[in-house]
Amino acid sequence: MMEEDIHAKGDEEKGIELSAAVKSQRVLVVHHAGPTLRLIREALQGFTEATVDTTPDALYGFEMALKRPYNLFIFSLSLPSIDGELLYELIDKAYAHSHQGVRVTPAVMYIVEEGQAMQSQELLRDARVRGILTKPLNIDRLLKLVTEAGLGVGDGGLSRSGRRH
Q1: Exposure check for the chain: N or C terminus, fewer CB within 10 A?
Q2: Listed residue (147, 150, 149, 161) closest to 47, CA to CA
Q3: Any idea what DSSP says for residue 122?
Q4: C-alpha to C-alpha distance for 4 and 107, rounded to whole angstroms
């Protein structure tokens, strides 16, 4: 009887840990340009409660996606080793198998160069794609799309006057 109580207590503790993990939001950004990664990371960390992981390497991004759960992916459509669409498809095939209790791969947003904007519109037909960001990036559009994808956007510590609290 005591052994059952110990297991039940352990399961409750795991449940508490899992619910806390679900509440914290995490975003993975994969883009080959360091300044773009930094801009997105600082914007999201400044205006959301999300933890942002970034990498310029698509293969490392694939590994990161399988190691920890994410709420949103933001990938460059043109990566040096493989394109962002293929990276997302590979993650989609393996994501549920590497994360216990997860059935659906998180949504994705793509970053495209100005000349690719028309070609990328076809990607929006996929229900998993939450938006297309065209470079040069607009932070307001980024935050709008992130909000629509389900991440909460706050005021980033700014008061109504625009000054930090």
Answers
A1: N
A2: 147
A3: G
A4: 39
Structure tokens at 125: 């037909």
Q: What is the DSSP letter of 157?
A: T
Q: Determine the structural domain holding residue 142 and report its residue range.
A: 26-148
The helix (run of H) or strand (run of E) holding residue 110 is strand 107-112
Q: DSSP code of 92?
A: H
Amino acid at 15: G
Q: Is residue 118 included in any domain, yes or no? A: yes
- For residue 87 the two structure tokens come to 């990276």
Distant-in-sequence, close-in-space partners of 116: CB < 8 Å, separation ≥ 6:
77, 78, 134
CATH number at residue 55: 3.40.50.2300
Tell me the per-residue pLDDT of 103-146, one tens digit each, with 9 for 90 and over: 899 999 999 998 887 778 889 999 999 999 999 999 999 999 99
The domain tally of the chain equals 1
